Amino acid sequence: MKVLIVGSGGREHALAWRLAVCDGQQVYTAPGNAGTAQVGRNLPQFEVNQTDALLAFAQRERIDLTVVGPERPLIHDGIVDCFRAAGQRIYGPTQAAARLEGSKAFTDEFLARHGLSRKWFQVFDSPAAAKAYVRRQGAPIVVKADGDAFGKGVKVCATVAQAEEWIDRCLVQREFGSAGERIVVEQYLTGQECSVQVFTDGETVLPMAPAQDYKRIGDGDTGPNTGGMGCYSPVPALDPETFEHIVERLVRPTVEKMAEEGSPVTGTLYAGCILTSAGPELLEYNCRFGDPETQVVVPLLESDFAEVLLAAAEGRLREVTPRWSQQRAVCVVVAAQGYPGAYEKGHPLSGLEQAAQDGALVFHAGTKQQDGQLVTAGGRVLGVTALGDTFAAARRKVYAALEKIHFPGMYYRRDIAARAEAAEAA
Ligand code: GLY
Does the C-beta of 228 come closer than 6 Å to ligand 1? Predict the structure, then answer.
């Protein structure tokens, strides 16, 4: 099968590696990175939002299946709608279903309408009304830009003053453009977070191995938020009953009700959950594979990944039963110095082959080939994943592999999956 992957990060390298190296498919990645180039053919001439050009390529090259990595082509460009209208198989949601990620207000109202969330919230486009609500409810409180703000529109506000400032940044200063012309003000919840992703074709729902990611830059969850500094799977804090609750009582009803409302969800539905003392709650939905979650989840799949994706795209997911390894997977993201603020690019990388020799999977995120040399080309540069029979073993392996990799200013967290290791030991 010929598979076209849209995107260029660690998630896309993990997808490309899995489909090409493990499942033997012929993989193209648009535009791709230096890692995807090692397992298939990159298409650097395309940007992910060039839907018409990607479709023309898929038709010309007789691509059997297109898999969309990032959310923007789904939310903004309706890539799935365009491909389907042209009779091209594609894995992902329609633009209408992608509202689950593209509009926080849509999702909170949908969940409330169907009794799938207990948290209180209100949607505002008036700063005065939003501030009056914040003053009534008190802090801590969460203020979210409604639309897709490149992951930067959500603010957990410790005080009423912070919430009022964020409201102004969204609704008055329009810092997030049209993504922030409406906001959602909602209840602040506490507990461990986890990511529960499912494959769905709009009817059948097949859960993947759950994961937990690390959003802050510094050890001990300190410093600013990032695109993700590491991840592990499975999640010891998520007991089997709670996992079943999330899948059966939150995610499956979401898929059913979205279909009933005329917007069936297809592809990956990613439930960002929080495990509160009163039970699990949905924090957000994403309409695509998580990053870095994909870098731990995909290596744990024992079944043929290509077959699952194809079955989902063809609406016959009921025919497949994915099998998951019982091993533990840990991914540590390697960033450039300064990330998530300003950082340098163009530094030569070394030691990747030595790291891989000991069985680690080295997924490229921000890398490129320049004058015959592998150099850094982004803030998150690599995701290094290792599997083991225990979290302790997986952590030892991944951190030993990281010792072999070098580039100037290289930074990574030292505590990824430490809490999982401690929980497992206990
Ligand atoms: N790891 C969070 C995300 O993919 O959005």
Answer: yes
Q: Is 293 in the pocket of ligand 1 (CB under 6 A)?
A: yes
Q: Please say whether the beta carbons of 98 and 74 come within 8 A.
A: yes
Same domain? 314 vs 397: no
User: What string of pLDDT tens digits covers the 426 residues of the chain?
Assistant: 999 999 999 999 999 999 999 999 999 999 999 999 999 999 999 999 999 999 999 999 999 999 999 999 999 999 999 999 999 999 999 999 999 999 999 999 999 999 999 999 999 999 999 999 999 999 999 999 999 988 889 999 999 999 999 999 999 999 999 999 999 999 999 999 999 999 999 999 999 999 999 999 999 999 998 999 999 999 999 999 999 999 999 999 999 999 999 999 999 999 999 999 999 999 999 999 999 999 999 999 999 999 999 999 999 999 999 999 999 999 999 999 999 999 999 999 999 999 999 899 999 999 999 999 999 999 999 999 999 999 999 999 999 999 999 999 999 999 999 999 999 999
* Nearest-atom index, ligand 1, CA of 289: 4
Q: Whose CA is nearest to atom 3 of ligand 1?
A: 290
**Structural domain boundaries, residue 239:** 192-319
Domain count within the chain: 4
C-alpha 319 to ligand 1 mean position (Å): 28
CATH of the domain at 382: 3.90.600.10
In the sheet with 154-157, reading across from the earlier edge strand, the strands are: 121-124, 183-187, 141-145, 154-157
Region class of 138: left (phi > 0), else alpha (psi between -120 and 50), else beta: left
Ligand 1 nearest-atom number relative to CA 228: 1
Nearest to 325 by CA among 392, 407, 400, 234: 234
Nearest in space to 138 (alpha carbons), one of 157, 165, 117: 157
224 and 285 fall within a common domain: yes
Q: What is the CATH number of the domain that holds 26?
A: 3.40.50.20
Instruction: Decide whether any atom of ligand 1 lies within 6 Å of the 230 Cβ.
Output: no
Distance 118 CA to ligand 1 centre (A): 23
Question: Which atom of ligand 1 is least distant from the CA of 291?
Answer: 4
Judge if the beta carbon of residue 286 lies within 6 A of ligand 1.
yes
Q: Please work out whether the CB of residue 291 comes within 6 Å of at least one atom of ligand 1.
A: yes
Three-state secondary structure call for residue 227: strand
Distance 228 CA to ligand 1 centre (A): 7
Instruction: Quote the tokens at residue 390.
Output: 């225990």
Tokens encoding 225: 């938020």
Q: Whose CA is nearest to atom 4 of ligand 1?
A: 290
